[in-house]
Amino acid sequence: MAENAAGENAVKEAVAQEAAQNAKQVIDADRPVVLAVDHVAKSFRLPTEQATGLKMAFLNWTRGVKGYTEQEVLTDISFEVKQGDFFGIVGRNGSGKSTLLKIISGIYVPEKGTVKTVGKLVPFIELGVGFNPELTGRENVYLNGALLGFSRDEIDAMYDDIVDFAELGEFMDQKLKNYSSGMQVRLAFSVAIKAQGDILVLDEVLAVGDEAFQRKCDNFFTEIKQDPTKTVILVTHSMESVKKYCNKAILIKDGEIIVSGNKDDVADRYTIENLKTKDATEHNEEEDEYPTGLSARVPVLNVRPAGSPASLIDGDFAFDAEYEFNEEGTPFYMALAMHDMQRGGVCFGDSFDLYEYGRHKVHLAVPMKLFNNGKFRITVSLHTRDRHDPLKVEMVAFSNEENSCDFVVSDPKGKDNFALINKWSMDYRWIGGAKATADRLMEEELAKQAAAGLAAAGSVGTVAAGPAGSAAEDGQGAQNESVL
């Protein structure tokens, strides 16, 4: 009966979570689009030979020698950013990220396609652009603000916030050339992020300043992420920043978007791209046929529940990890991570060596006795070891959002689920000082509800309610209060 009740609770919780997800999608659909990039393309002309005069230029023209080659930097780029998004753009050096940002900022004009923005856009693409070393810090703030399109009155309103954030109040009337490089960076960065714009565009600038200033910037981005009226577009090589701040992301390779949407999938694919040993200019057409995280080396890698996607606290959750790897003689292993989708974070991780080549399933189970109710996800990744140096490893595949395993822990004992770890697995101990006893009112109420549920179902046997039932369940005797 307890399992049936738990199953019903799991169904109810799954329905509630689905309703919450649908509500989130409705809210997301209601948010206006503040940046629309539609089929944008951009190329540059690279000179191959120089004409020293009109005669040489004419001769080159008669020979059909252009004197330059066309380099396509961006090809058919399209995406949308909605109000309130913290949108990440990642890619290897030379992939076209900065060019795209300059097109978005209005510095470059696209050869094809359109870029539409709604609201005031504040770009911060290169440190120190728009600053004059012969002017004072105060004058540079007004100069840079004017270049960003703000009126004097608007800059007056922002000035104090900019100076306070940069922590340069006593230096604002000194010339910029007397500032240290760190002080100049702080001032420039403060102007950009404290400017009252609607869309903030940042290019590789999250690591500016000293440790204290970086903490301040981290707090600022955490706050702005919660503001539904502010939109941030971030170009970075830091996948930690993408996973921490962004809610959406795209990965650009050779001027094209190859992954879009889920930030974790984008970050993991970026890691794979950087680990590849083949020539960066070589394009493997086969890889386009595989889902994100997979390739010809590992065409199959997924995790699926072995049974019900709902588990009790006292039970194990069983699942199957399927893989295909055919490089015989290459040592390889699988790493797993269990993510807390409700409270956030990775709550467990492990890895184990594999020995069978080809396509196989590994049957696994993980005990749930530590956890409260919640929604969890298990992801896997496949890694190879160097034959001569076992400590040298390479990640060759990972399970994306679709190929990962989602499940729920649903148990009457786990309703007090604000924390990940439940009270039955770990608790505080009173070791001295003022008397302290554990509050067990919640457990008593749950025991009463369980007893009522069993009675309504016509179950045989009784469940003690009140302090005795709670204490008996904990194995501590019939006591109203238990010592910590």
From TrEMBL:
Residues 54-279 form the ABC transporter domain. GO terms for cellular component: membrane. This is ABC transporter ATP-binding protein. Its EC number is 3.6.3.40. It is an enzyme of class 3 (hydrolase). Gene3D superfamilies: P-loop containing nucleotide triphosphate hydrolases (3.40.50.300). Keywords: ATP-binding, Hydrolase, Nucleotide-binding, Transport. The keyword Transport applies. Residues 465-484 are annotated as: Disordered. GO terms for molecular function: ABC-type transporter activity; ATP binding; ATP hydrolysis activity. It comes from Bifidobacterium subtile. Belongs to the ABC transporter superfamily. InterPro entries: AAA+_ATPase, ABC_transporter-like_ATP-bd, ABC_transporter-like_CS, ABC_transpr_TagH-like, Bact_Polysacc_Export_ATP-bd, P-loop_NTPase.
